[in-house]
Write a structure and sequence with these properties.
Blueprint lengths: L4 E3 L8 H7 L9 H18 L5 E6 L2 H12 L5 E6 L2 H12 L3 E6 L8 H10 L4 E5 L1 E2 L4 E2 L2 H10 L3 E5 L11 H4 L3 E5 L10 E6 L1 H9 L11 H9 L10 H17 L1 H22 L2 E2 L10 E5 L5 H12 L1 E5 L8 E5 L6 H17 L15
Helix pairs in contact: 1-10, 2-10, 5-6, 10-11, 11-13, 12-13
The structure holds pyridoxal-5'-phosphate.
Length: 376
């Protein structure tokens, strides 16, 4: 156990250098070595996000902290917000808006369909929202939303926009300075190939001003981005003890992204996405995401009800390759393959060939198996 190839949508396989970084003697978070390591990490994060204009944040917490700190820092009780949903993580973002007292509207698209910029434009004309929340790649369905067009609509309407890019950054092209979104965030354990436990956010100056000028106080200590901002500039400031091993691992993972070159990494992920989609087509199964909205970091497809568990189990037992099933209601009829991080195309191809033989062995029928029920 513990040595399977991970083809789950996070966490992902770690390089030896990243694993070694976590096995170093404990680094105190007060001391020159940590300060320099941290500054380096923030600067590498700027490279990955293409963020030279905004403020770059890196701190301890999972991707959900990226979601919740964006909501808490930007949205006051009673503010009207709009969340685009076409998968589980969009719905979670909506829930967070509700929990934190927003008048939380949603613009819902069917699972598997991309969020439509025209519908967003019309919705923004109808009522005044303070922030729009967009999921870049919804890991539950592997739908990739066209963030450039969606953020553009927000900009035209003069509304702040937040992009959850947890399942995209590092594997899918994104240029923060050009995009014009107000917050884009990711987590360490997906396409960046770090250990789980760090959140990275790029935040526009406009969003910072919004946070600093808001009348109602930000109702959190740890999730308040204005408290973290000075720490990013001067890591000697203490706010909370960082998970130093996770950050050391992240620094190495980001270094590896830079060594590969972000554009090359995007191209490799494009190839990974193509391979996964070609294989699913070969098996005759139906992809969850519609054409034109298919992610290069994760691929989900429908299988006969009840087959997802046996496929997952057999693949791991016989070939030491781990894939995921669907979330909640989809767990028995959806397979999700995570293909990001340091994964090489030939390794993915070989593992998917093994998956093909497992499906044959199990007698998984090809064909269209659409899920119909509603989900959490
Ligand atoms: C798109 C998306 N957003 C947010 C999250 C939440 O991240 P975490 O599980 O690290 O809290 C995930 C996790 O898979 C995700 O895929």
């Amino acid at each position: 156990m513990g040595d399977s190839l991970l083809l789950i949508p996070g966490p992902t396989n770690l390089s030896k250098r990243v694993r070694d970084a976590m096995a170093e003697p404990q680094l105190p978070h007060v001391g020159a070595e940590f300060y320099s390591m941290f500054k380096d990490t923030v600067s590498l994060a700027r490279y990955v996000f293409k963020n030279q204009k905004g403020v770059q944040f890196v701190f301890t917490g999972s991707g959900t902290i990226g979601m919740e700190s964006s909501v808490v820092s930007l949205v006051a009780h009673g503010d009207r917000t709009l969340t685009l949903t076409n998968g589980y993580f969009g719905r979670r973002m909506l829930l967070l808006n509700q929990i934190h007292g927003a008048k939380a509207d949603k613009l819902e698209f069917p699972e598997g369909k991309g969020a439509d910029p025209d519908s967003l434009r019309k919705r923004l004309r109808k009522s005044k929202h303070s922030v729009v929340f967009i999921t870049h790649v919804d890991t539950s369905s592997s739908v990739s939303n066209t963030v450039t067009e969606l953020v553009d609509e927000c900009q035209k309407a003069g509304v702040l926009s937040v992009v959850d890019s947890v399942c995209a950054i590092g594997g899918v092209p994104l240029d923060f300075d050009r995009l014009g979104a107000d917050i884009v965030f990711t987590a360490s354990q997906k396409a960046l190939a770090g250990a789980p436990g760090a959140v990275l956010l790029a935040v526009s100056q406009r969003a910072i001003e919004h946070m600093e000028k808001r009348k109602a106080p930000i109702e959190s200590y740890y999730l308040d981005l204005t408290r973290w901002k000075p720490v990013m500039e001067d890591p000697k400031m203490y706010l909370a003890t960082p998970a130093t091993q996770v950050l050391q691992a992240l620094r190495v993972a980001l270094t590896e992204v830079k060594e590969e070159g972000i554009e090359n990494r995007w191209a490799r992920h494009r190839r990974l996405g193509e391979i996964a989609r070609e294989k699913v087509a070969e098996w005759g199964q139906e992809l969850v995401a519609e054409e034109g909205h298919r992610a290069d970091t994760v691929t989900s497809f429908w299988v006969e009800e009840g087959k997802a568990g046996p496929i997952q189990r057999t693949l791991e037992e016989e070939h030491h390759v781990m894939v995921s099933r669907g979330i909640y209601d989809d767990k028995d009829r959806m397979i999700r393959i995570g293909h990001f991080g340091i994964l090489r195309p030939e390794v993915l191809r070989g593992s998917l060939d093994q998956m093909g033989s497992v499906m044959e062995e199990l007698g998984v029928a090809p064909g269209r198996v659409r899920a119909t029920s509603r989900r959490r």
